[in-house]
Amino acid sequence: MRKTKIIVIEDEVIVAKDIQKSLIQLGYDVPAVANSAQVAFEKIDEYEPDLVFCDIKLKGSIDGIDIASRLREEYLIPVIFLTSYVDKETLDRAKVTEPYGYIVKPFNQTDLETTVAMALYKFEKDMEVRDNEKRFANVISNIDEAICIVNLEDKVTFLNTRAEQLFKLSFANSLGHNLAQLLTISHNNYMHGVVKMPVTLNNATISNVHNLQPVSCNIVISPIHDEINQLIGNAIIIRPNAFANESEVLAPPLSKESEEAMVFQDSFFVKKGSVLVKVFLTNIHWIQAMDNYVVIQTSADQFVVHSTMRNIEAKLPAENFVRVHRSYIVQTDKITSMEDNSIVINDKIIPVGKSYRDLFLKRFNFL
Fold first, then answer.
1. What CA–CA distance (Å, rounded) separates 31 from 28?
2. Rounded to two decimals, what is the model's pTM?
3. 52-61, 159-168, 271-280 — which one is most confidently predicted on average?
4. Any domain includes 205
5. What dihedral do alpha carbons 38, 39, 40, 44 form, nearest 10°?
6. DSSP letters along 296-334, please?
7. Theoretical Cys-Cys bridge with 353: which of 98, 213, 257, 325, CB 3.0 to 4.6 Å?
8. Strand runs (DSSP E) across 85-168, as ranges?
């Protein structure tokens, strides 16, 4: 059975070595310690740990909280903070990264053993919840009924694939719009706004902004509550009734490839100042992570977006784009030359991380 691999990030050498020694005695694999953010990410890319110990007040321009934030957003690696005295402002910053535990210096081996065991257990359970949420989202996205979710202001927060087909609008173009701007629902018992009790509307009719021909359907509107039972919106489930020309309004389910193309297509919009700019995928050269932002470099411009590399990577077509480093995604056909540990796009030298190199090289043919 493979040992749990842990990296220690601590700029006090004696403390770092003490933690490393104690963790090894407890049966864990601790292949490296790091005293700075730069070294830390080099070691993380090299060893791909299951857990990271990180001093909150790490010296340098990038402290432990910054490191933990990036590990959470880009690497999905749990972090245990090492602390001594921490002021309230620092603690508030640390909480946002959702660490999996704290070790207060000075510590003993029992503290380490208990904290690591709890962190690994909690992370495992979090991943199970995340997988369940993904499966649930997949079911919702591909279920035969059209499902629309609105918030307390009756604004769209989710459309599944069937709803996109019915509304003749993509989720991206519907997000944030008032439902009444997208769809007209006609029924004696229907009222705009959020309901507190489930409502069934049999033999209702709907029409949308792109197709004024009414569609006969059955609708169920159900309230949605959060984990503390507060009302946060409604789920609107629409099933069109069978009739001769239904195919004109509601197309058959899309294939996975068509569904992805409809959601993302060949471009996306990026806000630059007060203007939305359409960016075509074919014009993107590379994407670079910069703290909590990503920089998208195109043939003629550069855009800064508040997002994570993980989120951006999930939306890009894998046949055209590849992750080459924790901080870089590139479009493969824009690469002009390669070296052992880097690639060049025009005059830009981009590093290739050790943990990405093998997968990256498999994308190309060599003579």
1. 9
2. 0.47
3. 52-61
4. yes
5. 110
6. EEESS-EEEES--HHHHHHHS-TTTEEEEETTEEEEGGG
7. 325
8. 102-104, 146-151, 156-159
